[in-house]
Design goal:
With 332 residues, the chain is α/β, with parallel strands linked by helices. The protein is built from eleven helices and twelve strands. Helix content is 42%, strand content 17%. Bound molecules: nicotinamide-adenine-dinucleotide and thymidine-5'-diphospho-beta-D-xylose.
């Protein structure tokens, strides 16, 4: 049995990763999750209890992390505070979880010689001009804009230093914007889908011309799995599916799928420091690892995602009112 420790495994991408990983009968997973507002135990419902252990705890708790890492063959580190708007309202938990938490995991990995994969984001590279066609590559300079992306950049730097100075067996992946089932309703796509279900107009920050490069969460996780298996130690891999869309276009597709006029949205105050455009060049991952997206049809992916939120209202309903109340406080 191969024993994986998955931090943040009750959050959006982590829970989907656990679901994928447990399809391999030779894998057992331990989830370490603090169960912040972003986690939901129900995201792990229906999985084989003989091969899934869930531990409630903090990645910044050194002794706990050390004990768990010692008993596993590999660590996949998803746990993070992940929402830009929250990092603007209160950066402190981002420092503790994203930087100190990663430091604790790295120290445990160093002591026990455990294989480590670090989950990061394209946002550490800052943003790109709207219209010049450029994309981030693994050689792009780090230029984070928000407290969230600055702490993710810090965590990436720690991993690189621990590889070089201590020789830990680590890989890093930086992925673009994910969508799919089990994503918290604070994030752009689920927020708009659930607004429409509730008869509320989708909320577009500023002009809506900002561009994100979308990828289905299962494509992200398939790439992570391949990198864990076959990635070169010390390397960084970009994960992206060549699906750049501006926010207005995404909202209009959602409205069309949900049977409403394309202009049934409203503009709200922009996010301070709002990154203009992200775009990922995943040539290295495709060439070296042979990965390619299995869900390249964005329209179809959004249709399936809308259907998932319609069918799984009991999963998100309990968080919706509180999330919107938080947005109301910040005027977005
Ligand atoms: P999420 O907010 O849905 O989930 C994060 C999980 O981490 C939650 O279950 C939460 O309870 C847990 N967590 C938070 N603090 C913790 C702590 N101190 N100790 C233990 N667990 C803690 O986030 P997500 O969207 O699933 O993102 C997962 C990872 O992927 C993050 O590292 C994020 O930076 C990265 N990422 C996300 C995207 C995206 O589009 N969502 C894109 C690229 C990279
Ligand atoms: O209501 C909204 N209206 C809106 O126009 C929300 C919530 C967002 N937006 C815009 C802001 C962004 O341009 O939509 C875009 C996507 O916003 P988010 O879902 O907050 O994602 P983003 O800030 O791009 O960051 C995401 O991708 C990279 C994840 O949240 C990060 O964890 C990941 O690292």
């Amino acid at each position: 049995m191969r024993r994986l420790l998955v931090t943040g495994g009750a959050g959006f991408i982590g829970a989907n990763f656990v679901r994928t990983a447990l399809r391999d009968p030779s894998v057992a997973v331990t989830v370490l999750d603090k169960f912040t507002y972003a986690a939901d135990p129900a995201s792990l419902d229906g999985l084989d209890p003989a091969r899934l252990t869930v531990v409630t705890g903090d990645v910044a708790d050194g002794p706990l992390v050390d004990d768990l890492v010692a008993r596993h063959d590999a660590v996949v580190h998803f746990a993070a505070e992940s929402h830009n708007d929250n990092s603007l309202a209160d950066p402190e938990p981002f420092i503790r979880t994203n930087i100190e938490g990663t430091f604790r995991v790295l120290e445990a990995v160093r002591r026990h010689g455990t294989r480590y994969h670090h989950i990061s984001t394209d946002e550490v590279y800052g943003d790109l001009p709207l219209d010049d066609g450029s994309r981030f590559t693994e050689a792009s300079p780090y230029r984070p804009s928000s407290p969230y992306s600055a702490t993710k950049a810090g965590s990436d730097m720690l991993v690189r230093a621990w590889v070089r100075s201590f020789g830990i067996r680590a890989t890093i992946s930086n992925c673009s914007n994910n969508y799919g089932p089990y994503q918290h309703v604070e994030k752009f796509i689920p927020r708009q889908i659930t607004n429409v279900i509730d008869g509320v107009a989708p909320k577009v920050y500023g002009s809506g011309t900002n561009v994100r490069d979308w990828i289905h969460v299962d494509d992200h996780n398939a790439a992570v799995w391949e990198i864990l298996e076959r990635g070169r130690i010390g390397e960084t891999y970009f994960i992206g599916a060549d699906t750049q869309r501006d926010n207005l276009t995404v909202v209009q597709i959602l409205l069309e799928i949900m049977g409403l006029p394309k202009d049934a949205y409203e503009h709200v105050t922009d996010r301070p420091g709002h990154d203009l455009r992200y775009a990922i060049d995943a040539t290295k991952l495709r060439a070296e690892i042979g990965w390619c997206p299995r869900y390249p049809d964005f329209h179809r992916g959004l249709e399936n995602t809308v259907q998932w939120y319609v069918d799984n209202e009991s999963w998100w309903r309990g968080r919706k009112a509180k999330t919107e109340a938080r947005y109301q406080e910040i005027g977005r």
